[in-house]
């Protein structure tokens, strides 16, 4: 049986996190399929699912929520772990409060399927990955929130979360 690790990513940061999670699971001897959510049509071949999305406007990407809605009944019958990447966790001066706030962004997912584990990770801000039209708007938001470009992914934290998954997924 295979574990599906699937992701919704606009700039590639979440795809990179999904790849790292898959690598850890494979190193633990599990069989893993890694796919973007748009390429997943049927969950029947998977024993468990790990799904993650970038955060836009305090939410999983629309295609990620659509994925959970579309596969809700299948996901309810198997272990399901969820993760997100965002910038709020990278820039905060109040890490514990921010973590509590960011955890709430998974509530729409929980309303559909309850994850057995949730991973909250800082992501990447790379303006070159944002469309030209949106970039100007985004620069304004960056000033207000004091966001700076950078890769804030905490690989040891991501790998530690992935290493704890097998006991919950199998
Ligand atoms: C249009 C847009 C909106 C975003 N909104 C938020 C947000 O509301 N909160 C947050 O913490 N990060 C936000 N981010 C940051 C992304 O979640 C972060 O850059 C993420 O790692 C991007 O992942 P990706 O490269 O897989 O798309 C936003 C990024 C973009 C481009």
Automatic annotation (TrEMBL):
InterPro entries linked: Flavodoxin/NO_synth (IPR008254), Flavodoxin_dom (IPR026816), Flavoprotein-like_sf (IPR029039), Protoporphyrinogen_IX_DH (IPR052200)
Gene3D superfamilies xrefs: 3.40.50.360
Domain Flavodoxin-like: 3-170
Pfam assignment, any one: Flavodoxin_5
PANTHER family to which the protein is assigned, alphabetical: PROTOPORPHYRINOGEN IX DEHYDROGENASE [MENAQUINONE], PROTOPORPHYRINOGEN IX DEHYDROGENASE [QUINONE]
Protein name as annotated: Flavodoxin-like domain-containing protein
